[in-house]
Amino acid sequence: MTVTRAIRPPRLRPGDRVAVVAPSGPVVPERLDCGLDVLRGWDLDPVAAPHVRDTHESLGYLAAADADRARDLQEAWCDPSVKAVFAARGGYGAQRMADLLDWSAIRAAAPKPLIGFSDVTVLHEAFAVRAGVATLHGPAVAGEVFLKDDATREGLRRTLFAPETVRTVASASARPLAPGRAAGVTLGGCLTMLATELGTAHARPGAAGGLLLLEDVGESPYRIDRALTQLLRAGWLDDVAGVVLGSWARCGPYERVREVLVDRLGGLGVPVAEEFGFGHGDSALTLPLGVPAELDATAGTLTFETPPLT
Question: One of 51, 56, 124, 280 is an active-site residue; which one?
Fold first, then answer.
């Protein structure tokens, strides 16, 4: 089954009410407060979800109980007064709460931007597969990169408020691992999460015809090899149109990581751009998922057929 375009949500406008949720790991309260201030500076009205500051009573790597995290996301998405949903951070935990969401209610609600990365890859895939909605692979509002890097914040702000200005996303650091051009609908995110989601109700059958975004953090080269090999053995990468590789922070020396990427992806026979500047790096591009685009791996650009938001 070929990856198909998704429904694009509306852009944001000054004064819009937005929600910040914690679907995965617990947040650092001071960073959350700073992130909310940034959103206020964009003339938005951010509301922290009821359990966004909680920590699971026994599993300290989770922000609140599974049901509470799911309820926060569900209520934010289905509230017509909320115009966008921001993830406070990644971490781990979205897989534990994704099955608790009422997907019928989510499909019935008006689409809106969902912004996040890392563990939120699970939700990007679920919203694409279960609700047919385009989402934004972008920084977490309580994350260090969002708070410290002007370019990261500005890229997200422009995508949300003036999406026609980011039809072409260019990366100064990008270079071709395999040169060429390819067209398809964007999908993907954190490699580990894509591999561990295989076989669930929220995983698509494959990336055929799509432009696949991949990045990860804290995974040694052999673990990156293992995840890519899982996708290859499952046939998930069959007929992918092209691949866009982001950051591999704390994954070891990049030359060792690159050897794995060349070995596992070089045989696909499709354009592959590396070091494209999204993910867990010191600066992070915002990239729409579910939108048709053309990759020029040689030039280091992604050009979207339409603005990512309407």
Answer: 280
Question: Among residues 125, 197, 215, 219, which one is catalytic?
Answer: 215
- Tens place of pLDDT for every residue, the chain, 310 residues? 788 899 999 999 999 999 999 999 999 999 999 999 999 999 999 999 999 999 999 999 999 999 999 999 999 999 999 999 999 999 999 999 999 999 999 999 999 999 999 999 999 999 999 999 999 999 999 999 999 999 999 999 999 999 999 999 999 999 999 999 999 999 999 999 999 999 999 999 999 999 999 999 999 999 999 999 999 999 999 999 999 999 999 999 999 999 999 999 999 999 999 999 999 999 999 999 999 999 999 999 999 999 999 9
Domain boundaries, the chain: 17-164, 168-304
Please tell us whether the domain made up of 168-304 is placed in CATH 1.10.10.10.
no
Classified as helix, coil or strand, 138 is coil
Residue 202 annotated among the catalytic residues of the structure? no
Q: Cβ–Cβ contacts within 10 Å for residue 147, how many?
A: 18
Query: Taking the domain 17-164, which CATH number applies?
Result: 3.40.50.10740
| In contact, 190 and 212? CB cutoff 8 Å | no
Among residues 174, 186, 184, the alpha carbon closest in space to that of 137 is found at 186
Selecting among 24, 51, 118, 137, the annotated active-site residue is: 118
Which pTM does this prediction carry? 0.96
Is residue 215 part of the annotated active site? The answer reads: yes
Active site residue 118: yes
